[in-house]
What does this fold into?
Amino acid sequence: MRNRVYAGLILVVMLLLTGCGAESKEDVLKDLSSKWVETKGYELDAKMKISTGSEPRLYEVTVWHTKPDFYRVKVSQEGEDVSQTIVRNKEGVFVITPTLGKTYKFQSDWPEKNSQAYLIGSLAQDIEADKDSVMTENKESYIFETKTRNSHQKMLPTQQIHISKKTLLPIKVVILNDQKEEQILISFDKITLGTSRNAADYKADIPSNETNENETAATDEKLAVFQTHYPDLQWEGVNKIEEKVIKDDTQERVILTYGGNKEFTIIQSPITKNPADLVPVFAAGDPADLGFAIGAITDQSISWEQNGVEFFLATKTMSRDEMISVASSMQASDMK
It folds into this structure.
């Protein structure tokens, strides 16, 4: 009889210990929300690797956020003098490209409609929004697999968010294509919660040390030479109909026309700097995060800058997701 009592007590203790050691997805999400979303602000440094092209591209990402609506995100390409900064302040949303001396202004609610994997508030909302998200865990981390809610959600529908059990902060985010292959990896180097900056820190200014004081005026530049870019997509029933090159004394433009199941036109030309671009220019539409660049998108067009080239895509038959798919796939090529 005594042995049976001991055995029963041991079983009860084991069940209690097992119950105490396992946290549900809801418990973890509640803890994350209180830690990430309720903080008055944060700052972080991260690295981003994009593997959607023929060669991986590496970027440094710095984020400042002060509640409720102030953001400053700087993305710099490693090994290149190329960066972009997106700022949200009381005046609106600005995209700044210091190396080109260009600033675009949007009337947009970014990032509310377009989740960003390097914004920890967005990650918490992604987990909460996906009722079918799955949580697994290992010794060090909780791992949430959720649907994405960003500009690439048709091409890149799934993400895995790795969260430290010790700090309850994200360690990395892996964004996957529909074959579950890694396409974007964001690794968080440092996250500081509870920070707060003044409104002056969120001004949409181009830092003087990031402008080129010795640049030559655009009117004095020789005709720029550039490689034509083509969309690296295999869409059934979509074909290139025409390629036209237009040149004048200072500029070359290439116009690509596609037809079939999807009809669209892409205009591309080399970027030239203009002192007038130092004044913010209003950009119609919303900011569109292409991974390597931030463009401007409307229901019938998208424009962006990449590899020293300005692009404009116009269409009446494609969705915003499809336009972003084309823009994200553009590759320089000698192929005609």
Observations:
- The two ends are 88 Å apart (CA to CA).
- The first strand starts at residue 41 and ends at 50.
- The chain is about 15% helix and 40% strand.
- The domain at 25-202 is CATH 2.50.20.10 (outer membrane lipoprotein receptor (LolB), chain A).
